[in-house]
Automatic annotation (TrEMBL):
Protein name: Type-4 uracil-DNA glycosylase
Keyword Lyase appears in the UniProt entry: no
Origin species: Bosea robiniae
Keyword annotations of the record: 4Fe-4S, DNA damage, DNA repair, Hydrolase, Iron, Iron-sulfur, Metal-binding
DNA repair recorded as keyword: yes
Protein family (similarity comment): Belongs to the uracil-DNA glycosylase (UDG) superfamily. Type 4 (UDGa) family.
Domain Uracil-DNA glycosylase-like: residue ranges: 38-198
């Protein structure tokens, strides 16, 4: 096993980063997950989306947002006039964290330590993609990108920015929409999510 570079300067390309991330032991999540799920998308993407962490399907496929939340994301992107194939899509945490219940692997929220440890990889993705616009999907992504805890509700309608000035928009995580029990609330919140994505579309073109 090649040594994992200790700092970012040893990694000079997205390819190096993606390969090195497969051997990551910066937190304990690598012990039980199937594989690292690194971000994907064109390196000249104008917009970079950050989710929370891979789910069950993503962990097995090795690709972000390919499960149920990914389907909601794909549909909303289309409705907002955004092409997912032209966006870079990644997660705040790159290993699946779960609790085993019988044979089912139940998603567990990453903690602050795991989010901070994985920021190393997100920083590299930001550095190599240099997006014009970043979107935080949910509170964990927002926590990672801003470095501090803040409520999604208060961040959602504000214009935020990363430390380097890149504009940041916070919106809900698509799986939040899947969890809403009430159909009316679900369609209302879904429409609001699409409206947020449409705002992104207007900002990047
Ligand atoms: N939820 C996420 O936050 N990311 C994924 O890749 C899939 C589900």
């Amino acid at each position: 096993r090649p040594e994992l570079p200790a700092d970012e300067s040893a990694i000079t390309s997205w390819r190096d980063a993606a390969a090195a991330a497969q051997r990551c032991t910066r937190c304990d999540l690598h012990c039980h997950a199937t594989q690292t799920v690194f971000g994907e998308g064109p390196l000249d993407a104008r917009v970079l989306f950050v989710g929370e962490q891979p789910g069950d399907k993503e962990d097995l496929a090795g690709r972000p947002f390919v499960g149920p939340a990914g389907q909601v994301f794909d549909r909303a992107m289309k409705e907002a006039g955004l092409d997912r194939a032209r966006a870079y899509v990644t997660n705040a945490v790159k290993h699946f964290k779960f609790q085993l219940r019988g044979k089912r692997r139940i998603h567990e929220k990453p903690n602050v330590g795991e989010i901070k440890a994985c920021r190393f990889w997100l920083d590299l993705e930001l550095q190599f993609v240099k997006p014009r616009f970043v979107v935080a999907l949910g509170a964990s992504a927002l926590r990672s990108l801003t470095g501090h805890a803040s409520s999604l509700a208060s961040a959602r309608d504000r214009e935020l920015a990363l430390e380097d000035g890149t504009p940041l928009l916070a919106t809900v995580h698509p799986s939040f929409l899947l969890r809403l029990p009430d159909e009316d609330a679900r369609s209302r919140e879904y429409a609001r999510f699409v409206a947020d994505l449409a705002r992104v579309q207007q900002r990047i073109f």
